[in-house]
Design brief:
Length: 251
């Protein structure tokens, strides 16, 4: 698929590091021009500089509607269109048990992971509808399909991403727009850096479930799945929730 995205534009959120950075690089290798978006402006700029002239960096606060709308407007003004959207930005929770979860943590994680994904999707859809085509790939999580892989806020947010994926897929199936989600298990990334400190009681409760999986993915392995789902090779795949977890979810 080295030239599968020539002439197309991909917007990747959370592209300053980890999975998002790997996605941006993978789409660029496949021939796309890439809008690299992250709350960390310096991280986005570093990713774009490493990719080269095919990438343009943008700062965005996923929790802020006006910031998201401005991102999409600037990306379209700069690159002409958005053919592929990778909703990858997200934050972890502290792994607290539900009774120990603060409302502040609940609202922050839901706002970034779920509402942010909705806001970017909503902002991109009108021009995808105008062009009669588009592919959206959401980054869900193992916590989006099971109850014992994270704390309550993260689990609820990623279950919400799964539901949003299916809703968008169904709503726009006749408009040339596809929406799928990938479900990563553990990945070598710096995602844990977004958490000030994990709740040891919650981590201990979750440990037996997490220990069932002995495989940790490279960000590039997750990125290649996203490239496939956005490609013409996956033209009849819509509304799919695809585990990329070395079989953890099969157990």
């Amino acid at each position: 698929m080295s030239n599968g995205f020539t002439g197309r534009v991909t917007l990747v959120t959370g592209a300053g590091s980890g999975i998002g950075k790997a996605m941006a690089a993978a789409f660029a290798r496949a021939g796309a021009r890439v809008a690299v978006a992250d709350v960390d402006r310096a991280g986005a700029q570093l990713t774009a500089s490493e990719i080269g002239e095919a990438a343009t960096a943008f700062a965005v606060d996923m929790s802020d509607e006006s910031s998201v709308d401005e991102l999409v407007r600037r990306a379209i003004d700069s690159l002409g269109r958005i053919d592929v959207l990778c909703n990858n930005a997200g934050i972890l929770d502290k792994m607290s048990l539900p009774a120990d979860t603060s409302i502040a943590e609940w609202e922050r994680v839901l706002r970034v992971n779920l509402t942010g994904t909705f806001l970017v999707t909503r902002a991109v859809l009108p021009q995808m509808l105008e062009h009669g085509s588009g592919a959206i790939v959401n980054t869900a999580s193992e916590a989006g399909i099971r109850g014992g892989a994270a704390g309550a806020p993260y689990t609820a947010s990623k279950h919400g991403v799964v539901g949003l994926t299916r809703s968008v897929a169904w709503a726009y199936a006749n408009d040339g727009i596809r929406c799928n989600a990938i479900v990563p298990g553990p990945v070598f990334s710096n995602a844990a850096g977004s958490v000030a400190g994990f709740d040891e009681k919650g981590v201990e409760r979750l440990r037996p479930v997490i220990a069932l999986n002995q495989h940790v993915a490279l960000p590039e392995q997750i990125a290649e799945a996203a490239v496939f789902l956005a490609s013409d090779a996956a033209s009849f795949i819509n509304g799919a929730i695809v585990p990329v977890d070395a079989g953890w979810s099969a157990g």
